[in-house]
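#struct-pred

JT: dropping the chains for the assembly here, can someone run the whole complex?
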Amino acid sequence: MNNVRARVWVTRTVLVGFIVLSLQMTIATEIRVFGVVIQIALAFVVAAGAASGPGEGAKAGFVLGLMYDLASGLPLGSTAMSMTFGGYAAGWGRRYRLEPTWWMLAALAAIGAAVGEVFVPVIRVLTGETGVFGARIAIVLPVVALSAAILSPVLIPIARWALAIRPAEVRVTDADT
Amino acid sequence: MATYSPGRRRVVIALALTSLFLLTLDLRGNQVLDGVRSGFGILYRPINRAGEVVSAPAVRLWRSFQEFDDLEEENRQLRAEINAQRSAEISAQNAIIENQDLLALAGLESLASYGSVTGRLVGQSPTNFDQQVEIDRGALHGIRVGMAAINEAGLVGKVTSVAPQSSIIMLVTDPSYAVPVKILAPKDEVAIAATSTTVIPVADSDDTAVATSEANGEEATEGMVETTTTMVEIIRETGVLRGQGSDRLPRVSFIAPATAFGQIEVGDPVFTAGGSTSLAPPNIPLGRVLNVITRAGTAGQELEIEPTADLDRLQFVRVVLYQPASEVGQ
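RK: done, full complex below.
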């Protein structure tokens, strides 16, 4: 049963990932807000985290991050790591609220997106790049976080479908922990 | 079916470590990962094309909304500029031809010596921390990693990744970008820097003209003496230009100050320096000095450079098929 579910999970996430990446590479790079590229892929990852919890969010982040690195020519693993942390951070809030309202999920998505985006320059610095931390991050973080929050009502149902999660499962397993 | 598994911390640690491992492998260069990347590119390309088609109307609508006023104003300015430049163009074309002839005579390299491939922009960097663009020409068209990318205004960047049908170009504003450059004196300061003497034989002597150079110390033969002068560029400084990110101008830090050739001033033109190890060929225009920053102590000066190429509105990019001697054998 778990194997079947894992296969469904991976297949759906990769399929949705391709579509999300395609939107990221085309529409998001053109439609910039204050010059900032809206991170649709990261928004999907944090939506997955907010919808299902930190573990699933981290896994979705890892898969989409790898696809993002492969598609954009970035060092493999750099975005995977930042999105892993973003998905995990977005899911962390689910520990304290079993049935969050839509705005709570949006807030979790915003926090996760900010965490994920702040890890991008951190990882670049670790790989030896310089000059990635600038005043611009003060604009980038709020825009990326806010856009993830705004997109969350659309992306959370898609993320639930992709991760094969039903709301009831969250309730039962949260009770276990 | 647990969504919150007890080992979720272990999961995130394992994923982070895997990312770190892949990152290390990729940064050190790994053929397997390169193969995976290439395969993914082939798989992803049609999906991306479909995405472009689907999103094109929305993108056009956004651009129309966002850029109409700017474009109208720019169009007005450009029309005035075209009128002013029409006369200058004729003399400039003449100067280019003369310059190419002189370079060919002296056996010096110029940009016209190299082949090039023109590519259309098909994508931009999806992140907020890289300045990269993607073009629709790749290894099948002769493009290799490291080659310089230019447009009609000047240097745009360099190729950092090549797939069979596409390439990724890092722009000069990217913090990871660096290129050796030279800062020249403006044209009105270009001096007569070399003199040569040509001896033209009298009519009844040998048919072949004999040319000697004073510099060689050779004895002049009998005949009419004609003195010619050569205009030589004055290099004020050479240094390394580094990108500073999209919101800041690229900067040049100096490695070889040569103040004997005058102080650097705002407006001095900046060109690529070339050289045996530089990935860019010499004499590609890059920009003009916008600001001279004097730093305390022995740090020396830094220059802020305004690129001549408008990197925000690139549509076509020409990749110069040039590889320095140090790279050709590899």
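JT: nice. Chain B touches chain A through 61 residues (CB under 8 Å). The first strand of chain B starts at residue 116 and ends at 124.
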